[in-house]
Design goal:
Layout (H helix, E strand, L loop, with lengths): L1 H30 E17 L2 E4 L7 E12 L4 E12 L4 E3 L1 E9 L7 E9 L11 E15 L2 E24 L4 E22 L1
Antiparallel strand pairs: 1-2, 1-3, 1-10, 3-4, 4-5, 4-6, 6-7, 7-8, 8-9, 9-10
Length: 201
Amino acid sequence: MLKSNVKRVRLRLLIAVCLVIASVSANAQKRLHFDVDYHYYLTVSERFLGQSFGRKDIDDMHGNSLRFAVRYDFTGRVSAGAGIGLDWYEGLSYGTAPVFATCRYKLIEDKGLYAFTNLGYSIGSSDGDPFSRGMMFDLGIGYPIMLTKNFGINIQLGYNLSQFHNQDFYVVDVSPDIIDVNRLKINGCRHSLSFGVGLTF
């Protein structure tokens, strides 16, 4: 009789633990989000060699970015997490592979519109090949169009700052007798407008 009661207590305890775990897991799934985003960067200016250059100075100044992030809803308005990305910039061409922290703040609770920021550092080799090292920073607003309860299309508009280090830059000196090509290693930063679209789930 005693053994039977012990078994029943253990069974009830096991069921209670399973229910608690299931409840916590379900709640975590509602709070945990995954984002995959593509961004097009329209470069406004770039600074290197102690000078600033605009779109009229350098042809085809733009960039493309693919980002993946994991976020957790800490409150009804605040969501934060971390992500990785692959970015490529044209004009003065270079690539970055940023690892970053991300944070979102809903401007109106229970509504979709939010402000966001990303801050990170691009991992790469010391000679800048194939990816350049440097800080990255994003700031903007976004809006998710939810197709189901946990799946939607994410739209973002913002500002992107990207640093680069040790990138090859070629200076060509042309004279009547000779053409001299010099390779320099330069550091700089780029300022861009960012237009993004992606999936959130």
